[in-house]
Amino acid sequence: MNQLEQLAQYTTIVGDTGDIKSISQLKPQEATTNPSLILKAAKESAYARLLVEAVQKANSLEDAADRVLINFGAEILKHIDGRISTEADAALSFDTEKTILKAKKLIALYKEKGIDPQRILIKIAATWEGVQAARELEKEGIHCNLTLIFSLAQAEISANADVTLISPFVGRIHDWYKNRAGDSWVEEANAGANDPGVKSVRKIFERLKSIGSKTQVMGASFRNKGEIVALAGCDLLTISPKLIEELSSSTEPVRKVLDAKLVTHIDSEPMTEAAWRLAMCQDEMASFKLDEGIRSFMADTLKLKELLRELGAKLNKNLE
To answer: Does domain 3-314 have CATH number 3.40.50.1370?
Structure first.
C-alpha cells in the first residue's frame, strides 16, 4: 500500500481544497473549505457558473457570497461520501448571536439544494464568542468545526461546548516558531514528531481523549507529508491535493502514532472564560496566529465579494 492507503487505515482523510476537480480525482472521504480556498477556486473559469448562479439568486452582496460558499460545497458533496466544512464569515468571530444567525442561514441554503444538514459542518473561529455560538448551534443539531486552533485552551473550551470537531493548525504553528527562531532554526531537528505543530496536535488529541470528550480532532494546515505521517491515528487529517498526491506516490511505512485507547482518563473541570482569556494572553503564538487567521480570512472574503460585485455589474445587477 502507498502511504495514503496506510494512513487511511487509522485516520479519516479529508480534502483541503475548494477545487472540485481535485476532489473528484482524489476522492477523499470528506472535505474542508475556507474563504481563501474558495477565493482561489472562484477565480477559475471552470467554476464561473457557480458565481453567476449565486449573483442571479442573491438579494445582496453578502447573500451572494454566502451562496457561492454553498454552491462550491454542494458540488464537492457530489464527489465525497462524508461531510463538507463551510466557514462562517470571519468578521463575525467576536459576535455570538450573529455567528448563530449566519450558521443557520448557511444550513438553510444547503437545505434549498436538498442537502442533509448532517453532511455539513459550520466552521467557526475558536474565539470565546465563536465557541459559545457553536455550543448553541450543536444543541439545535447544527454541527460545528471550530477552526484556527493553536492552543490547548482553545481545544478545551471547544470540547467543553460539545462541538463535533476541532481543527488545530500544524503548519501555521510551525511557521511561527520557524520565523521566531530565524537563523537558529534547524529544519531537520524540527521535523516529524519534533515539529512544534505536530507536538501541539498530539497534546490536544491526548488531552481531549483523556477527559472523555467526543469532539473529533482534525489536524490541519500541513507544510509537508512528514507532519501528516507523524499524526497517523488522529481522528481526521485535512490535507491539500498536493500532499495527498505525495502520499499516494510513496510506499514508505506509516505506523499508528496516536491511539485514544492508550490514553489514561482523568477528571477535568470546564475552563472558565477568565481562565481561558488568561491562558490565551500568556500564549503569544496562539493569540497572534488566531488574530492573524481571522484577519486573513476577512481579507479574502472581501476579495470574493469584490469579484461578485464586478460580476453583478456585468450581469446588470447591483449588489450592495
So the answer is: no
